[in-house]
Amino acid sequence: MAMTDEPDKEARKAPEPDFAAQVGAKAARKLKARRHATPGVWFGLGMMGLIGWSVVVPTLLGAAIGFWLDKHSPGQYSWTLALLMAGLTLGCLNAWHWVSKEDQAMRDEQEDSDE
Length: 115
What we know:
By secondary structure, the chain is mainly alpha-helical.
């Protein structure tokens, strides 16, 4: 009889997680997931479009101004090519700025949610 009592005592010693605590933890995880939802496909497409336009607009603007300058004051060098490259450079820097800003915002949000 002593042998059968020992396993029961050991089973009683191990603390069992409270059912209400488990349900509360799951509910808290679900609420946190709803508050910090991962961006969907549309967010990614929108960001891609934003970055694309931030490169395209200065590039085309530089090309248009360069074309106008070439028509009104022709010279040895092409204003179109020079301003096209300047616009492309400016657009790429603009896109880099947007991407780094979004990356920093995501990192800050992740650090806030970890706390």
